[in-house]
Amino acid sequence: MVRTVDYNSRRKAVLSLAINKYIKDASPVASDDLAEEFSLSSATIRNILCELENEGYLTHPYTSGGRLPTNKGYRYYVDFLISQMELLDDEKERIVKDCSSKINQLEDVLENTSEIISKITKYTGIVSFLDWHDKIFYKGISHILEQPEFQDAVKLKALIRLIEEKQKLLEIINRDFDNKVKVYIGEELQCPEMSHCSIVVSTYGNKKKHKGRVAVIGPSRMEYEHIIPALEYISEVLDDVLNKF
User: Fold this and answer.
1) Residues of the chain with pLDDT under 50
2) Ramachandran category for residue 102: left, alpha or beta (phi over 0 → left; psi -120 to 50 → alpha)
3) Which pLDDT score, from 0 to 100, does residue 244 have?
4) Which own/partner pairs from 104-107 qualify as long-range (CB within 8 Å, at least 24 positions apart)?
């Protein structure tokens, strides 16, 4: 019996696993790291990784034989490869409980929500309110310091400047989009000094009095599988809380 191989599906699976491993470990992924998962030889995996690199989905640092994702790779991963995680019930309960506290003042609610986003995602959480054109709430810059990408002082300074100067950040997170969640990766931010970062944005308050955006900012090596459903759920809970104002 002749064994048939779906090369395209296999290439997608290798790319998906390589990106998942890089997101988790922050270290270039070698062919040996993947070979066992697919019961294939290291040489076969190496050839697939070489093809993916030639097509622009992966690259490799000069100091390592392993590969890491490009922003094109992350875009393909977000659009076609990730299977979004369902939030656990206790995580949902924690979000509802935390969002339901500190609700006496609208400003307190928005600031509290930025902190909840940061705690749940382990990145920097941001909340904007459309009626307050030049104001944002943010928490969790300390999480950025824990990411290896921002051990580079130039990259860290650029990110902190983007957050603190607000206007460019507001311009990005308040862009129009159709879906519930929008992911901007690297060059899509149209901010050259942030080409190593991503921002995930969700809308709250559609067609209601209180409208705005919730967002997460961090490195391109971001846990999209968890962050996308988490941000979507937080925006839904925030909707409910704001109905009380």
Assistant:
1) none
2) left
3) 78
4) 106/210, 106/242, 106/245, 107/137
* Exposed/middle/buried for residue 59 (C-beta within 10 Å: 0-12, 13-18, 19+): middle
Q: Are 214 and 125 in contact (CB under 8 A)?
A: yes
> What gap in Å lies between CA 86 and CA 94, rounded to an integer?
15
> How far is C-alpha 60 from the geometric centre of its chain's CA atoms?
21
190: tokens are: 């149209």
Report the pLDDT value the prediction gives residue 206, as an integer from 0 to 100.
Answer: 65
Distance linking the first and last C-alpha atoms of the chain: 69
* Tokens 């460019």 -> residue: 168
59 alpha-carbon distance from chain centroid:
20
Strand order in the sheet with 197-204: 136-139, 124-129, 212-219, 197-204, 181-185
**Distance in angstroms (rounded) separating the CA atoms of residues 69 and 67:** 7
pLDDT at 220: 96
DSSP-assigned states of every residue in 57-77 = SEE--TT-SSBEE-HHHHHHI
State residue 100's pLDDT score: 85
Residues in contact with 73: Cβ distance below 8 Å, sequence separation at least 6, in sequence order: 15, 19, 52, 56, 57, 58
Other CB atoms within a 10 A radius of the CB of residue 185 amount to 24
Catalogue the E-assigned strands of the chain. Answer: 58-59, 68-69, 124-129, 136-139, 181-185, 197-204, 212-219
Q: CB-based contacts of 35: which residues, under 8 Å, 6+ apart? A: 41, 42, 44, 45
